[in-house]
Amino acid sequence: MLSRWTLLVGFLLSLALPALAQTLVYPVDVAVDPDGAVFVADHEAHALLKLEGGSFKTVAKGQGLPRTPLYGIRHIARAKDGKWVASDPATMKLYTIDGAGKVEPVADDERFVTLTEHNLRRYRSALQAHIEGLREFCHRHEIFYADASTEGGLEGVLTRELPHLGLLGWR
Q1: Cα 65 → chain centroid
Q2: What pLDDT was estimated at residue 171?
Q3: How many Cβ atoms sit within 10 Å of the Cβ of residue 128?
Q4: CATH code reported for the domain at 4-164
Q5: How far apart, in whole angstroms, are the C-alpha atoms of residue 141 and residue 72?
Q6: Are 20 and 51 in contact (CB under 8 A)?
Q7: Among 33, 132, 140, 169, which is 20 to 30 Å from 125 by CA?
Q8: What is the pLDDT of residue 167?
Q9: Is 170 helix (H, G, I), strand (E, B) or coil?
Q10: For the chain, which ranges sit under pLDDT 70?
């Protein structure tokens, strides 16, 4: 199912930043670090990219071969220690990426989080901070964005959400 942020990335890159979109192959997730730097997970480039000086620089790149790290990179998040965590459903693993671009698999026993009420509150708080960071980035750079629910899947987005927001019309 498409996430709100996948749609937001698509809008940002296809509508507001066409020159930058040409440097990306298949962006699937975006994150903003505490300093306001924008990072993108590019599924087809098998890479974590950082927006610097108007173009994307490679932070870490996989080999692009099946069953190798970052082959199917999907989601990225910043860990407390400053490293990035990337999910890769193609290898069914999580990977950490340090500042030097070193990619390491997360040990199997470290991949699970016990969902407590405290963890759920922290998750919601982090998600809200992520949303606010994306909105602030868009505002600073005068980028149009839309907040569309993806609960109805692609069909719901195309037939309800985007027309409701005035972004898509049918003839």
Answers
A1: 21
A2: 59
A3: 10
A4: 2.40.10.500
A5: 30
A6: yes
A7: 140
A8: 75
A9: coil
A10: 1-22, 109-114, 170-171
Strands 55-61 and 75-78: unpaired
Where do the structural domains in the chain lie, given as residue ranges? Answer: 4-164
Secondary structure of residue 171 in the 3-state scheme: coil
Residue that the structure tokens 């922290």 belong to: 122
Give the span between the Cα atoms of 16 and 139, in whole angstroms.
12
Residue at token pair 């890159």: 13
Q: Does the model's pTM come out above 0.70? A: no
Name all contacts of 40-44 with Cβ < 8 Å and 24+ positions apart. 40/9, 41/73, 41/74, 41/75, 41/76, 41/86, 42/73, 43/72, 43/73, 43/74
At residue 159, what are phi and psi to the nearest 5 degrees?
-95, -25
- 3-state secondary structure (DSSP) of residue 154: helix
